[in-house]
Design goal:
This protein is an alpha+beta fold. The chain has a domain at about 5-75: Arc Repressor Mutant, subunit A (Orthogonal Bundle). Helices cover about 50% and strands about 15% of the residues. It is built from eight helices and seven strands, in the order ααβααββααββαββα. It has a three-stranded antiparallel beta sheet with strand order 1-3-2. β4 and β5 (about 115) form a beta hairpin. α2 packs across α3 and α3 (about 35-40) crosses α4. The longest helix is centred in the middle third of the chain and has 17 residues, at about 75-95. The chain is globular and about 55 Å long. It starts with 6 loop residues before the first helix and ends in a 5-residue tail after the last helix.
Length: about 160
């Protein structure tokens, strides 16, 4: 149907291993060159260029020129959210594989696009929920803070009052 999103094409752009590795390399919010993404994807630079063109055409990444270099970054938070959801779903389906970065330190704590991630990030969020400092909205996506939670966060960083 012409008036519905083209999920199949979007998913097909995600569904190739080298492209998926390139996208995951961008999850920390940085912009990387095509050469850096080729290394991350495990492909030749010429192959990376065609992969990046497909990702850009699908709206997953956006290119930016800086001098003679061309950088790529995720197209936005919603793309990072989609990737995180897929990583979570894949983790539930593939329990036998070690998920996340190979480096143990990065599995423990890292910045993922625009938030704290890894085991430490999950543990902090779980504790905020347990203390009732934080809660999820009705659809389970956004996190809001209670009055106690806001006071706790202000105590951690009084400059944000």
């Amino acid at each position: 149907m012409a008036d519905t999103p083209d999920i199949a094409s979007f998913a097909a752009a995600l569904g190739e291993a080298a492209r998926a590795r390139m996208l995951l390399a961008l999850m920390d919010g940085r912009a990387l060159t095509a050469t850096e993404l080729a290394v991350e994807g495990g492909v030749a630079p010429s192959t990376a260029s065609s992969h990046l063109a497909r990702l850009a055409a699908s709206g997953l990444v956006v290119p930016a020129r800086q001098g003679r270099h061309r950088y790529f970054r995720l197209a936005g938070r919603e793309i990072a959210s989609v990737l995180e959801g897929l990583m979570s779903a894949a983790g539930n389906a593939l329990r036998t594989r070690r998920l996340g970065p190979r480096d143990e330190g990065l599995r423990y704590a890292r910045v993922c696009y625009d938030h704290l991630a890894g085991a430490l990030g999950s543990a902090i969020l779980d504790r905020l929920f347990a203390l009732r400092y934080a809660r999820r909205d009705l659809v389970g996506r956004a996190v809001t803070f209670s009055g106690m939670g806001e006071r706790f966060l202000e105590h951690l960083d009084p400059s944000h009052r």
